[in-house]
Amino acid sequence: MNKAKRKAVIAGNWKMNKTPAEAKELLSAVAPLVKDADCEVIACVPFVDLQTALETTEGTNVKIGAENCHWAESGAFTGEISAPMLASMGVEYVVLGHSERRQYFGETDETVNKRTKAALASGLKPIVCVGELLWERECNITEEVIARQIKLDLWDVTEDELKNVIIAYEPVWAIGTGKTATAEQAEEVCAFIRATVAKLYNQAAADALTIQYGGSMNDGNAEELLSKENVDGGLIGGASLVAEKFAAIVAAASK
Ligand code: PEP
C-alpha cells in the first residue's frame, strides 16, 4: 500500500494549555476552517477540556483525543484517568508516550505499552510517540532507540489492534524548540519505523500504518514534510493553538 492509500492524520496536541472556555473558542474557530479537509483532523486536549471539546465539535469532522490515560480500568490511582473513562465520554484518540511524559513524569516503554494495550482494549485509538534525544542522534543510535521503543511500546499488540494505532515520530530535540527535522531526516526515520513494523508484523500491516511526524511542524514547513512517502501526517504542538496555523497544516495534508 502506498502513501496515497493511507489517510493522512493531523492531530493537535494542546499540552497544558486552554481552559474550557478557551477550548470552545479555539475549536469554534478551527472547525469551519477545516470542514473540507481530506484528512483526519484531531484535537488532543487537556482532560478538563474534553467535555467542552466534544460538545463544540459535535457534527463536525474534528475528532477529539486525550493526552494520556492510565493502564488500569479503575482503582486507587489518585489523579489518574482511565481509558474506559475516556471512551465512555466519546473520546476517540489518546496520545501516549509523549516525550514530555517520558522526560518529566517517569514514563517508560513498559508503561507506554501498558497504556497502549489498555487504550486499545477500551476502543480508543492510541497515538504512540517515539523519538530520539539529540545526544542519541549525535551518537548515531537513532535507529536502535526507535526500534527498541517500537518493539517495547507495541509488545503484545495484535495485528488486528495495530490497525487502530498511529505512531508519531517525534525527535525530542525538535519538540517545542522551533528546530524541525529536515524532511529527509523525518522520512528516513518514518521509513525505518515502517520497516521495523514490517519485521515485527508483516509488510501489509506496516503499509497500512499511519506514521506522523511531530516536532515544530508549522504552516511554513508542513507541506514539504507531508510530501514524503512515509510521513502520513503530523502531531502538532504549538501551531495547534492558533486556528489559522493549524488549519493551514490541515490544508497541506489535504493536497
Ligand atoms: C508535540 O507536542 O507533540 C509537538 C510536536 O510540539 P511542537 O509542535 O510545539 O514542537
Walkthrough of the structure:
The structure is a single chain. The chain is α/β, with parallel strands linked by helices and 255 residues long. 43% of the residues lie in helices and 15% in strands. Strands 1-2-3-4-5-6-7-8 form an eight-stranded parallel barrel, surrounded by five helices. Helix 1 runs parallel beside helix 2 and helix 1 packs parallel to helix 12. It starts with 8 loop residues before the first strand and ends with a helix. The structure holds phosphoenolpyruvate. Phosphoenolpyruvate (PEP) binds at residues 13, 15, 170, 175-176, 214-217, 235-239.
* Shape by Cα distribution: globular
Number of discrete helical segments: 12
Task: Assign the CATH superfamily.
Answer: Aldolase class I
Strand content: 5-15%
Distance between the termini: 19 Å
* Averaged pLDDT: 97
**Architecture, according to CATH?**
Alpha-Beta Barrel
H/E series: EHEHEHEHHEHHHEHHEHEH
Which oligomeric form is depicted?
A: single chain
CATH class: Alpha Beta
Quickly give the structural class.
alpha/beta
| Strand line-up of the largest beta sheet | 1-2-3-4-5-6-7-8
Sheet having the most strands: 8 strands, parallel, barrel
Could you tell me which ligands this complex binds, including any ions or cofactors? Answer: phosphoenolpyruvate
CATH fold node name: TIM Barrel
Q: How many structural domains are formed by the residues?
A: 1
Uncertain ranges: none
